[in-house]
Design goal:
The structure holds three protein chains of three kinds.
Chain A (H helix, E strand, L loop, with lengths): L1 H36 L20 H11 L10 H17 L10 E3 L2 E3 L9 H11 L1 H10 L3 H24 L1 H7 L4 H7 L3 E2 L2 E2 L2 H4 L1 H14 L23 H26 L8 E2 L2 E3 L5 E3 L2 H27 L7 H29 L1
Antiparallel strand pairs in A: 1-2, 3-4, 5-6, 6-7
Helix pairs in contact in A: 1-11, 1-12, 2-11, 3-5, 3-11, 4-6, 5-6, 6-10, 6-13, 7-13, 10-11, 10-13, 11-12
Chain B lengths: L1 H21 L3 H21 L3 H26 L6 H5 L3 H22 L13 H10 L3 H26 L1
Helix pairs in contact in B: 1-2, 2-3
Chain C lengths: L1 H6 L9 E6 L2 H4 L3 E5 L4 H10 L2 E10 L4 E9 L6 E7 L6 E3 L8 H12 L2 E3 L30 H4 L7 H14 L4 E5 L11 E7 L2 E8 L7 H7 L6 H7 L4 H16 L5 H29 L4 H21 L8 E2 L2 E2 L7 H24 L2 H7 L7 H7 L4 H4 L7 H4 L20 H25 L20 E9 L2 E9 L7 E5 L1 H7 L1 H5 L4 H11 L3 H5 L1
Parallel strand pairs in C: 2-5, 6-7
Antiparallel strand pairs in C: 1-2, 3-4, 4-5, 8-9, 9-10, 11-12, 13-14, 14-15
Helix pairs in contact in C: 8-9, 9-10, 10-11, 10-17, 10-20, 11-12, 12-17, 17-20
The chains are: A mainly alpha, B mainly alpha, C alpha+beta.
């Protein structure tokens, strides 16, 4: 009992620490990535003891700046809701990580250890529901600021997130149908199978679903080209009346959601912690070579592989952000309801037919 | 341990449900209702009904209540409705109607016999739920989907008419 | 000249004409002039409107014994500038008939007339202050207005102050009045209004019902300054109006004074002027392209465009010593000769820029989101363009090849080999196409002008050493700025400073057409359409 609790606390620390640190690091990645794409050098001035290290101290400097800034509440705002909104945003972005498996299950001194904070059998539904709760932070921010711009931002955000939630949920039903489970750990384990030495990852089995989910996840996390709730050149966004660390929390939520979307994409479509040809006792390559490894190393390799895949997707989402212009509101809705939802429904139908026929 | 958790969540549900009625700003009411939904979801989790809990959050808290909040924001109902409720002849009907409702509630609750609440297996309750829905309760399930379809069509037509 | 008289018999047929004049176009920029009575003005305007003349400019002039409204009508296809004057001897509250229902572009000109002179245009739909604050008590362009330095602000401007409870009261009143309506103030502090423009949007959800542009936030009254300063002193003001394409504005002013003085610059100076102006035009279009894509949510192209613009600014800095507000032209020439090394830089830049243009085209036109955001958005029909007096790339995006460089060739443009790109789309995408094609044409002109540049002095022989005195008369001179038709109407009285110098700036007319382009679009389109008009606010506010 106590052992389990301690393990869970450690695991929570690892997952939350990982997610938060990655989100912080992403501010730096975003700056550098945009700089690379735009022929610039990017932020490199922050220094600690004369060390600059490519501007890696900028996330720290940013955080310090945001904390030290004046925390301003507009005069005619709803004070309580205005203060509550950023916390709601960050809270739901953080607890969603609980259901994501970061490594394989293993036994240690007779205890089964799940490398997943919440080992629940409806993990996928849990994540979807928590992500859908994230809309409250945005809506409250828009409403409580008593500002027409943030209000428009809140409206845009809520309608966009509700719309794309549906596509997001429906698009992954194909995966769920094939694996027969809503537990993300089971879904990842099912991706360890092979078909003529080709790993049966979600991206190979459900390519349509992958693209649908990628798009919907980008819309759900409000990133370019779906960043209409922010739309800095149009309505500035739902957080226009926020300053200091409260703004920083919205900022953080943005990156946390990016990490979450990447983690979900990895888990569902890139085999999570799976490495091709790595089995529980080591590598078994299709050409016959076998490397035997001890179990702790296999587990550790899995966790590392998971992190690398997540970082890859984060980078990929950054790339898209700095490439594309922004959709218009009606185009966004049309894309969501008239194109993506029908395709994802057809995808379910086709998947079902194939499963019945095979 | 279990009963402590149960009473905590039950208190949460009842308190927030009361606050929904008594808070004087509709936006706060909706937010309290969200908390109520949370409490209910927690109770479902304690009953090992994970699927129902997740759906409860996703559908009620994540979608329907957002729409409520949406409407409240759009109409900006700041203490406007209060006057009409507290005056006029309708308030004399409030007490008798409440009494009738309470009596009805009492009789209905007393007739329920709860049986076999632990019947579902813990791991596979999503599956067994799906199984039940698609075998035993297939007809009601399909009928409900048709009703929902009709509702969707209805709203579409209504909103189209408003645009012109 | 007799021929034009015959052709234009219809203009005044059956109307009360107080006097008619034939002008020599080459001398002062006008073809014909009529002084007519107040009652015939509307009939006359309708005749011009039906024959596809656009209202080029409306200037009010305060003469000692009367107020005068000078309307200029002109054609797109065959240049024919007619100056129509209406006089009113009432010096306190002169009344004139409004043309705002015939020419929608007249709306703002008339409001400006009211603002500056206190002239009242009867039946104008919304005769309020345009450039000065709503609560101003002065008419600064009147000759009897003394803008003394000691004047207290409260004498010229009533201040509105609200206490807290008053604010609550006012906002509640407004709420009750417009209970179902949603108003949003876009600007004056807004990233996409390119300076200090305020758009009051009347919305239904996100759909725009009506747009009211509110301008005047960077108003400095350059026209009044011109009357205080002498002709030479006023030259630096030009770069302060259109700071993005300052060279064309310098060109316009210097060209006007040279025309009025009847002198020509040295040949070498002409070529320097033309290639520097064209480079500046490219810089202006590049700035537009970058910020336009930024408005649409794509940040990266902004940096590419600025990178290219930097090259141009470097070259112009070599030439003029300045990067933004050049003030490089002088009466009869230019300030400095071409420095060593500029030629090499220009020769390297032109092919590089051509390559970049191809890149931009691929980057932008292959992007489906960009196409969807710009096509069939902000449509301005030919007739609307006529009514508003829209010029420049916006007009050429309606498929009309009206470009002053070809229509009224000035300087050495007749010798240059270039085309006027037009596109028939009438929408924001066509405006993008026009501007991109114009960069290519400007590159051609700059290349030719630099190659053909003769040796010789950079100042003409008759170039004045001190500030000149312009002979009495009325003059008009127009150039094609990066945003369109930039013209100046000068009334000189033979003294050292102008009696009246009216600036006809292109963005002014272009922006006034915004509300008709926007109705029915979404808020996101407001940004896209506003961006496509390429407004520079100080040029509008002057």
């Amino acid at each position: 009992m106590y052992f389990d609790i301690i393990i869970k606390i450690i695991l929570t620390g690892v997952v939350l620490g990982g997610a938060l640190n990655l989100a912080g690091l992403l501010t730096w990645v975003e700056r550098k990535q945009s700089a690379v794409m735009q022929d610039r050098i990017g932020a490199n001035r922050a220094s600690l003891f004369g060390l600059r290290i490519l501007g890696l101290f900028h996330p720290l400097a940013d955080m310090l700046k945001l904390i030290l800034k004046e925390d301003f509440t507009p005069r005619y705002a709803h004070k309580i809701l205005h203060a509550l909104a950023p916390f709601v945003s960050v809270f739901f972005a953080l607890i969603a990580f609980a259901a994501i498996p970061i490594g394989n299950d293993f036994a240690w001194r007779g205890h089964a250890i799940h490398l997943q904070v919440a080992h629940i059998n409806v993990g996928l539904l849990y994540i979807l529901s928590v992500m859908s709760m994230g809309v409250y932070g945005v809506v409250l921010a828009g409403f409580a600021s008593n500002n027409n711009y943030s209000f428009l931002g809140g409206l845009r955000a809520s309608s966009q997130m509700i719309s794309y939630e549906i596509t997001m949920g429906v698009s992954i039903m194909g995966i769920v149908m094939m694996d027969g489970s809503l537990n993300l750990q089971n879904i990842v384990q099912a991706q360890g199978q092979y078909w003529h030495h080709l790993p049966l990852w979600g991206i190979f089995l459900q390519p349509v679903s992958f693209f649908l989910f990628l798009t919907a996840a980008m819309a759900e996390t409000k990133r370019t080209p779906f960043d209409l709730p922010e739309g800095e050149s149009e309505i500035i966004g739902y957080f226009v009346e926020y300053s200091g660390m409260k703004f920083g929390m919205f900022f953080l939520t943005d990156f946390l959601e990016t990490v979450l979307a990447s983690a979900l994409l990895t888990t569902l479509f890139l085999g999570g912690w799976q490495i091709p040809y790595l089995f529980h006792d080591g590598f078994h390559f299709p050409w016959g070579t076998v490397w035997i490894m001890a179990q702790p190393w296999v587990i550790l390799l899995g966790v590392i592989a998971f992190s690398i895949k997540v970082i890859f997707f984060c980078w990929f989402l950054m790339m898209i952000r700095w490439t594309l212009p922004r959709f218009r509101y009606d185009q966004l809705m049309r894309l969501g309801w008239k194109i993506m939802l029908p395709i994802s429904l057809i995808n379910i139908l086709v998947t079902g037919l194939v499963m019945v026929l095979l | 341990m279990e009963s402590v958790l149960f009473y905590t969540f039950a208190t949460l549900v009842v308190t927030t449900a009361l606050l929904v009625i008594f808070s004087n700003h509709p936006a706060y009411s909706v937010l309290y209702l969200v908390l109520t939904m949370f409490g209910l979801a927690s109770l479902y989790v304690m009953l090992h009904a994970y699927f129902v809990a997740a759906i409860q959050l996703m559908v009620y808290a994540g979608a329907i209540l957002v729409l409520f909040l949406f409407v409240i924001m759009l109409l900006n109902l700041e203490r406007e409705g209060e006057e009409s409720f507290r005056s006029g002849p309708s308030r004399w009907l409030a007490l008798p109607l409440t009494l009738v409702f309470l009596v009805e509630l009492y009789t209905v609750v007393m007739q329920i016999h709860i049986k076999g609440s632990k019947g579902l297996s813990v791991e596979g309750n999503t599956e067994s739920l799906g199984h039940l829905l698609f075998t035993q309760h297939l007809l009601p399930f399909e009928i409900i989907s048709f009703v929902l379809l009709a509702a969707i069509l209805g709203t579409t037509i209504l909103s189209k008419r408003n645009w012109k | 000249m007799t021929q034009t008289q015959n052709d234009t018999h219809w203009i005044t047929e059956g109307l009360t004409v107080e006097s008619a004049l034939e002008h020599v176009y080459a001398k002062n920029g006008f073809h014909q002039e009529f002084v007519i009575s107040k009652d015939s003005l509307r009939e006359l305007a309708q005749r011009f409107r039906s024959r596809e003349y656009f209202l080029e400019c409306l200037s009010v002039v305060d003469y000692p014994d009367h107020f005068e409204c000078c309307y200029q009508f002109n054609r797109w296809d065959k240049i024919h500038r007619v100056l129509v004057k209406v006089r009113n001897p009432d010096k306190t509250h002169p009344h004139f008939p409004t043309l705002s229902d015939i020419y929608e572009g007249a709306n703002w000109y008339e409001r400006e007339g009211y603002d500056f002179f206190g002239v009242i245009f009867d039946n104008h739909p919304h005769l309020t202050r345009l450039l000065l604050p709503e609560t101003a008590k002065i008419h600064p362009m009147r000759k009897d207005f003394k803008g003394d330095s000691g004047t207290d602000v409260e004498d010229v401007l009533a201040l509105i102050e609200y206490e807290d409870h008053q604010y609550e009261k006012v906002s509640q009143e407004l709420k009750n009045k417009y209970q179902k309506d949603y108003f949003i103030n876009m600007g004056p502090q807004h990233p996409s209004t390119h300076g200090v423009l305020r758009l009051l949007l009347h919305l239904d959800g996100e759909r725009v019902l009506e747009t009211y542009p509110v301008i005047g936030y960077s108003h400095r009254d350059h026209e009044r300054m011109a009357e205080y300063k002498n002709y030479l002193q006023f030259t630096p003001n030009m770069g302060r109006m259109d700071y993005v394409g300052a060279m064309s504005f310098n060109f316009g002013y210097i060209g006007l004074i040279e025309k009025a003085l009847g002198m020509a610059p040295s040949p070498r100076a002409e070529y320097i002027r033309v290639f520097s102006t064209e480079l500046n035009r490219i810089a202006s279009h590049l700035l537009w392209l970058g910020t336009y894509l930024l408005d649409l949510g794509a940040m990266t192209p902004f940096f590419y465009c600025f990178d290219d613009r930097e090259n141009i600014l470097d070259m112009l800095e070599m030439l003029t010593g300045e990067r933004l507000t050049y003030n490089f032209f002088r009466f009869g020439g230019v300030a400095y000769d071409v420095p060593e090394g500029l030629g090499d830089q220009l020769k390297a830049f032109i092919p590089k820029m051509r390559g970049r243009l191809k890149d931009y085209k691929i980057l932008i036109e292959k992007n489906i989101i960009f196409m969807k955001r710009t096509k069939e958005i902000g449509v301005l029909t030919k007739d609307q363009a006529l009514s508003y007096g829209v010029t420049g790339p916006m007009l050429r995006a309606c498929g009309i090849a009206y470009d002053i460089r070809k229509a009224e060739p000035y300087s050495i443009y007749p010798e240059m080999n270039f085309e006027i790109p037009t596109f028939p789309g009438c929408d924001t995408f066509a405006r993008y196409q026009v501007r991109l094609a114009e960069i290519e044409q400007s590159l051609r002109i700059a290349e030719q002008a630099f190659a053909k540049m003769p040796e010789g002095p950079i100042k003409g022989e008759k170039a004045p050493k001190v500030s000149p005195k312009v002979p009495a008369g009325e003059f008009y001179f127009a150039v094609e700025s990066a945003r369109g038709h930039y013209g100046e109407y000068l009334v000189a009285n033979g003294s050292a400073n102008p009696y009246r110098l009216k600036q006809r700036t292109p963005s002014y007319a272009n922006l006034s057409s915004l509300s008709s382009m926007l109705s029915g679009h979404l808020v996101a389109d407001v940004v896209a359409v506003l961006g496509s008009t390429d407004v520079v606010m100080p040029e509008i506010d002057r």
